[in-house]
Amino acid sequence: MWYTAGWLAWLGFFLLLEGKALASRTPGATLSEHVWAWFRVRDPRPTPLVVAGRLLLGVFLVWLLGHLAMGWWTLSDPWP
Prior knowledge:
Elements: H1 2-24, H2 31-38, H3 48-70
């Protein structure tokens, strides 16, 4: 029960923060814009370290999609 309440509170806080950022139209306020800045998405000549970071982000997002949407890659059942 406490985990559910915590995750719902976290989700509510995220939606509140992201909604405020979207409504304010302040450049660089949304999560997407922060991630783009952290991974230098707009950099026309990324360094090898930036490319490695982007690759790690891509691998993480593929894992997250499979894990959340399909229930794959869990500690109890690591392979689909």
